[in-house]
Amino acid sequence: MSLNKSMHPRNRYKDKPPDFSYLASKYPDFQQHVHTSLAGKPVVNFREPEAVRALTCTLLKEDFGLTIEIPLERLIPTVPLRLNYIHWVEDLIDGQKQPRRGIDIGTGASCIYPLLGATMNGWYFLATEVDDICFDYATKNVEQNNLSDLVKVVKVPQKTLLMDALKEETEIVYDFCMCNPPFFANQLEAKGVNSRNSRRPPPSSVNTGGVTEIMAEGGELEFVKRIIHDSLQLKKRLRWYSCMLGKKCSLAPLKEELRKQGVPKVTHTEFCQGRTMRWALAWSFYDDVTVPSPPNKKRKLEKARKPLSFTLAEPGLKELQARASAVGCTSSSPVDGVTALLEKTLTDLRVLHKRVPCRKQEQSLFLTAVENTWIHGRQKRREQRRQLRELPRAPHCAGTSSQTAGTPPPSQSQPTSTNSSSQDSNAENETTPSNEPVKEVTPDTTGEQKELPESGTGEDVDMESSTCAEPGQEADPQEAVAAASEAPSKRPLSPGTVEHFLFKCLLNVMLEESDVVIEMHWVEGQNKDLMNQLCTYLKNTLLKSVAKS
């Protein structure tokens, strides 16, 4: 599970990620979804809905004593991210153990927010739902956990938000409302078409959920605006109104809408879970509420400066040292051996690099990446092979045809015929698919057109496989290494001559006790995700070399 230090300070998973090995040994239903990574660590494939569901149900049972059921065709929540939201609501209402009343708009089949809030803090919840399947499962989950006294699940009409839900409770003042709104406006947006930056890697987890859970007219922006308009009528019926957002770009226009409507108290935050980011917006019409401060810019800078890193354990270093010797490394130092292998891989990928001064028992390389050669390598090579198969062969010449038919050439023209035959053979070889370099034209990150060389040297890389717990679909570094070895190095003479580049970073190879640690520090460039992809590629390449032994 990909977690990080930017989670809410009270989140139980912030400094203690779930122990997959322990959970697998205790829960057989979860055990079948736990696999071993190249680094020898237990991992879960978050692109499998069954695995995501098994993990959620296991964590709720182990850490909160909750037993729930979720259908695969409905939204499967991740527990750490939901905990972030619960803890932020605690901050909003200034006191997590006092009896509080809350509303969960669109509670979903899991009914996770009311179940967590009631179990952790004894909160009373009014949970609304429009979907029949979600309503049935939510009701069952509340009942089987004996929380019917604290959680009331109500079925409301389609497009209903707060107004209709509170018609029958005209005098009750609620402390807060929570909402995980549908993020997308249509099917294309839900699939990432025209809404996802082309430079971003694909999502690391599967997208489950019913239509009413993931899509709404106008997407999350219009959905939350409807809640804002309801709040303008209800005003002090709720002390705090809040919503979670899936897109950072939704935050500014919603804050502007609240400003136009004269809402006096507004705040926001961000929820971090590995590569997954969510944002939350809250507003109030009360003057005496305590407004939590937005995220600290200093913390963001510290997060941005944190390097990417991975470790090569001592048992595999001997094999890596032997492979380094095979490529010409004469040093017996594991740091030098690993550095030599990294330099070879970077050379094959056409990533510019040069050694820079560093401390003893370390090696540092300054990297300049001018093109993305480490991702989608298999797709590129398949396309190249397809183009090779479709290339037409050159027709045989008349002389060749006559010889094939058995008609001997005149004796006086024998030398000429021999030369002609040789030329024909060369001409045929020049048009034979197996020897013709095929160039593929694709736009680079600046929108310009550029040609890709004959061999794609990259490999499909999943961003989350750089962490130990959300690998998604891992790449096959063995195939990538083989492809890289086929492609000649075409590096510019000097990194200083490069005017346009994707990113620059500093790669450090260090010895820590008996292990070797590789760190990549961002310097500048277009997108840090690209450095993350390269880091994962290098890691998988080295670990695959060890695994082959």
Automatic annotation (TrEMBL):
Binding sites annotated in the UniProt record for S-adenosyl-L-methionine: 82, 106, 129, 180
SUPFAM superfamilies assigned: S-adenosyl-L-methionine-dependent methyltransferases
Low complexity bias spans: 413-425
Any one GO cellular component localisation term in the record: nucleus
Record region (Disordered): 377-495
Stretches with biased composition (Basic and acidic residues): 437-453
Primary subcellular site in the record, as a coarse category: cytoplasm
The entry's keywords: Cytoplasm, Methyltransferase, Nucleus, RNA-binding, S-adenosyl-L-methionine, Transferase
Protein name, as recorded: U6 small nuclear RNA (adenine-(43)-N(6))-methyltransferase
Organism, scientific name: Amphiprion ocellaris
Gene: METTL16
